[in-house]
Amino acid sequence: MTLRAPLAAETPWWKDPRLWIVLVVAWLARAAFLWLMPQAVYSDDTRSWLDQWSAMQAGRNILVPPYYLPYPPLWIQCIFAMGKISVMTGLSFLTVLHVTLIAFETVVIVVSWRLAGMLAPEARRLPLFLVGISLNPVVILLVCQHGQFDTLMMLWVMPMLLAFVRFNRSGEAVDWLTGCLFLGLAILTKTVPLILAPLALHAARRLPWKTLFLGGALAFVPVVLGMSVIYVLSPQAMGNTLGFRGMAGWFGVTGILGILGDADSIRGYQLFYPFAALAAVAGLSLAFWLRWKLADSGLVLLALVLMVSVPLWGPGYSPQYIYWAIPLAVVCFPCLDVNWRRLTIGVFIVAIATYVFEYAILYSHGWFVINYVAAGQGIDLKTAKEITDPTLLGLLRFSLVWSDQAHQTFCRLPWFFALIGFFGYGIVLLRGAQRKSGAGEPAARGRK
Hints:
This protein is an all-alpha fold. The protein has helices at residues 17-36, 44-57, 73-89, 93-119, 125-134, 137-146, 150-170, 173-189, 209-233, 235-243, 252-259, 263-289, 296-313, 326-332, 338-361, 368-376, 390-401, 405-411, 413-431.
């Protein structure tokens, strides 16, 4: 992996016909899915957004029981805004939600396209983005069926990386400060981007102390102010937000421990992981402060490895977590060696097989196949008192079998092992991503 020289100004994205092809194909694919699927095809998370908007309309505090929203405040504001738009326009809340998430994803695609162009300008980005994002069944299911707001989080993470890569090349303080701002916005959306905080210290030692202080303020003051509102409304909700780790026992380490029936080990692992993650973040931060340098593509690869580590080794799991890695994997694909590319293709194939199966038959995910069959026979699964159709009954029984923790963990074992390989080889490549001191580096500046 080599450091590329700074490039001439890239063609503005709105003038690039290849990017427009990627965007239009993505919009058409998502519109086709939403048009073909019954309106009842949505996940438990989307169901909770509907419930929370109903509670807001009734003047209730959605941060206290029986409601549960373990996220920083930005998404609460989005739910309120989408609900108001729904009322003003007459569109359903679901329609506004889908349009909003697709709009967020559009920004993610545009910024990812620009970042990939900086790192690998000669690469054939059109087929890469068409296959990796626009027509990727995993992405379509997460955006259109699951309805989680990870697209909003990645809307901040990708510009953050773009800014830090620019800073890695130019040494301009404004690029670094921009990256810090987007880091703060990402943390204000979900707490998981805290694991990316060490990237802000990469090559930052040459900046003046005043600039470093301002960058820290941009990253963390909005987060503190936003979380303080959560605390005022519900101190319990603050603990839920900071301590949320997904669902234990459904994937990976805790899932395997759950199959073995070792509940004590699961609790111990849940206590151990935050300290291990904190130690890793501290170690990376120290390494970057002590002048460990990465090439541009190494920064993006490190972000990918860190984001994959959370669902892979974390004590809890939710299927939408994979969205954190997909744009990063697409950007990294042309920058690394052929073995990495083959591994990425294999990981994507396993992901597609796993996610299509789960979202087809699991109620919590929206079970699109079962809803589609029921709608074709004029059956409303919410109100039907008796179901006699043998095909639908067989699908419901099959879904029930695969809905417990043991079966879901077993189903995800190939996905778990694929991610281990992805994570492990990413670390191997990071060892070769180091940049020689002074190679392509702007002159150091004294602190003031």
